Amino acid sequence: GDVDAVEAHGTGTRLGDPIEAQALLATYGQTRDTDRPLWLGSVKSNIGHTQAAAGVAGIIKMVMAMHHGTLPPTLHADQPTTEVDWTTGAVQLLTQEQRWLDAESRPRRAAVSSFGISGTNAHTIIEHVPDRGLREPTETHPPGAAIPWLLSARNTAALRAQAGRLAEHITAETSTLEVAHALATRTHHEERAVITHGTPEERHQALTHLARGTTHPHTITGHTNPDNH
Q1: Does the pLDDT of residue 136 top 60, yes or no?
Q2: How many CB atoms lie within 10 A of CB 188?
Q3: Span 129-144, mean pLDDT?
Q4: Using an 8 Å Cβ cutoff, are 153 and 191 in contact?
Q5: pLDDT-based confidence at 76, cuts 50/70/90?
Q6: Which residues contact 78 (CB under 8 A, 6 or more apart)?
Q7: 18-45: per-residue pLDDT in tens?
Q8: I need a labelling partner for 147 at 20 to 30 A (CA). Which of 120, 161, 167, 217 fits?
Q9: Do residues 39 and 92 make contact, with C-beta atoms less than 8 angstroms apart?
Q10: In sequence order, which residues have a C-beta less than 8 Å from that of residue 57 and are 6 or more positions away?
Q11: What residues form DSSP beta bridges with 161?
C-alpha cells in the first residue's frame, strides 16, 4: 500500500500483459484508499523494447519521475485492455500526466518490473530520498596520494589513440578523481597503461607521449591476459 506506481514490463502482448496486470491488481491493488490508486505505466510505449536494458530504462524513468514529482503518461493506452478485469483492484493506467504526492508527507515509492527469457524476472522497489541539503562532492584526497588513470585497449594502436583522445579532452579544470573513476570502472582489455600521478599538465604530457609511443616517467605500460584481470 505504500507503493504509488509500478513501471510495468508491459510489452503489449495479449498473453503477457493480462497476466502481469492481474498480478498487480491482486497485490498492489488491494486495500488501498479509493483516492490513491496504484498508477501503472510502461516506458516501452516511448522507446520500444530495449531487451536486456528494459529494466534499466524503467528505473531511469521512475527515478526522473520522482525527481520531478510527476508521473508521465503511457502512450497509446487510452483504452484499457478488455483482457483484464480492472474492477478487482485499485489500479489505473497512466493515460494522463499525474502529479506525484508531496515527498514531505512521506517518501515517493515506485516498483519496476523487468521480465526476461525463460522466466527470468526482476522486480525492485525504489524510494525517493528527500533533499537534506547534501553538498556537492569536493575533490579531496590525502596529500601526495597517487590517483592513477587506467587506460586499456585491445591493441597498441588503439591504446595510443585512446591516450590521444583523452589528452585532447583534459584541461586545467579537469577533475582528476572523476577521470580516474570513469577510467577505472570501464571495461578493460589486454593492452594497459597507467598514468601514475602528476598535475593536469604533467598528465597531459604523459598522455601525449603515450599517444606518440614514447616513454614518460609518469607512465607504465604492459600487456595482460584478459582472463586474469
Answers
A1: no
A2: 16
A3: 57
A4: yes
A5: confident
A6: 95
A7: 999 999 999 999 989 878 899 999 998 8
A8: 161
A9: yes
A10: 43, 47, 50
A11: none
Q: Tell me how far apart the alpha carbons of residues 166 and 152 are, in angstroms, rounded to a whole number.
A: 12
How many whole angstroms separate alpha carbon 37 and alpha carbon 31?
10
196: number of CA atoms within 13 Å, CB side?
A: 7
In angstroms, the CA 46 to CA 55 distance is 14
Cell numbers standing for residue 55: 529494466
Q: How confident is the model at residue 134 (pLDDT cuts 50, 70, 90)?
A: very low
Task: State residue 103's pLDDT score.
Answer: 60
The three cell numbers of residue 136 are 556537492
Residues 6+ apart with CB under 8 A from 69: 99, 100, 102, 103, 108
Percent of all residues in the chain with a pLDDT value above 70, rounded to a whole number = 89
- Please, are residues 151 and 194 in contact by the beta-carbon 8 Å criterion? yes
CA distances to 13, 131, 196 from 180, rounded to whole Å, are 45, 28, 10
13 vs 73: CA distance, rounded Å: 19
